[in-house]
Amino acid sequence: MIRDLLVCFFLLAGGLLSLAAAVGVIRLPDLFTRMHAATKTGTVGVSSIVIGMMIHFSEVTVTSRGILVIAFFLLTAPVAAHMIGRAAYRSGVQLWILTRIDEWKTHGVNHQDDDDD
Amino acid sequence: MPYWEGCNGIFYFRFAIADVQVCDALIKGRPAPTEFHQSAITNHQSKMDWGLVAMQMFITNILLSMLWGLLTGNVNEGNLMLGFLLGYGALWLLYPAAGIESSYFKKTLQAIRFTLFFTKELIVSSWRVATDVIKPLPRMRPGVVGIPLDAKTDLEITLLANVISLTPGTLSLEVSKDRKTLYIHAMYVINPDDLRKEIKDGLERRLLELLR
Predict the structure, then answer these.
(1) Is the interface score ipTM higher than 0.90?
(2) Given CB atoms, is B10 within the 8 Å cutoff of chain A?
(3) pLDDT tens digit sequence for B48-93
(4) Does B182 share its domain with B138?
(5) Which domain holds residue B170?
(6) Do B114 and B62 belong together in one domain?
């Protein structure tokens, strides 16, 4: 009973978070804010669904695989997000007009010149 | 007999065997002399050495769990995990014998604490992003902020950038060429200094505590 409730909670939370991620991709104004919604809220959503699955089956083999799935998600998602964001910024994708501050531009070295590393 | 008598016994045992150098050879698989350990203590600051010692203890722990599995004749995941826990306890009892302050046990605690802290951050901030996305008028204040880095080595910077990217609401963009600044894109920049302080005091301090 309690277990079913927990499973329901995790599955629903995961589904809603994934939905929010999808809505965010459409609604948010520029590439960088969309990356926030798409990669991370989505990751947490999927992790939550996997946790629900692990509780539902409660078997060592399923649980260990679930932990691995989450671990690899957490390992790969930020790398992809980082690379896409960096590439976008360097190739001159515009930030949203209401972006308040851009310290990379004001303090950072001129990023056009240093892509030799 | 009061219940703590037994606990005292265990603690006494734990430090009594510290004098027995044989245990040292037993744990380390090498004769007792302390040259190696001394260097491990004196070079405590250089990350390589504690990494080596903790890694050795971790491998010893895994070997112990395999031994447990073989001895009980039952090599499945649950039993191996039990063996690992028992081995961890055995190492905890024996490690003063090695004559070094191994960071293995402290690190385990810190790792657990960091995981809990990070999970909390993950849940709180993804809730914030998710609700904000759905609101009729999103209250975003995005911005690109430079964070001065205390992290020095490649490993530290990589992990910090990864952890920052993982937390919803912040996304690491670029490390400056002199490796002193990490530029991140954040969704809620009310005040850049507050954000800097939040990340330095929260994620970076805890991560460096764990790694050093």
Answers:
(1) no
(2) no
(3) 456 677 777 888 888 888 888 888 887 787 888 888 888 888 888 8
(4) yes
(5) 107-211
(6) no
Burial of A41 (0-12, 13-18, 19+ CB in 10 A): buried
Q: Among B51, B83, B102, where does a domain finish?
A: B102
A2-106 is a CATH 2.60.40 domain: no
List, for residues A31-47, the tens digit of each pLDDT value: 888 888 888 887 888 99
Question: How confident is the model over B104-143, as pLDDT tens digits?
Answer: 777 788 888 888 988 888 888 888 888 888 887 777 788 8
| pTM for the predicted model, two decimal places | 0.67
Q: Name which of B130, B142, B183 is nearest A33 (Cβ-Cβ).
A: B142
Determine whether the interchain pair A60/B122 forms a contact, defined as Cβ–Cβ distance below 8 Å: no
Q: Using a CB cutoff of 8 Å and minimum separation of 24, what contacts does A10-15 make? A: A10/A48, A10/A49, A10/A51, A10/A52, A10/A55, A11/A48, A11/A49, A11/A52, A13/A45, A13/A48, A14/A45, A14/A46, A14/A47, A14/A48, A14/A49, A14/A50, A14/A51, A14/A52, A15/A45, A15/A49
At A54, the amino acid letter reads M
**Closest-CA residue to B180 (of B209, B156, B206):** B156
| Min distance B140 CA to chain A CA atoms (Å) | 9
* Interface contact B128, partner A, CB < 8 A: no
Burial of B125 (0-12, 13-18, 19+ CB in 10 A): buried
**Average pLDDT over every residue of B11-16:** 49
- Please give, rounded to a whole number of angstroms, the shortest distance from the CA of A100 to a CA of chain B: 5
User: DSSP letters of B146-203?
Assistant: EEE----SHHHHHHHHHHHHHSTTEEEEEE-TTS-EEEEEESB-S-HHHHHHHHIIII
Tens of pLDDT along B22-43? Answer: 445 455 554 444 555 555 545 4
Is there a single domain that holds both residue B88 and residue B155?
Answer: no
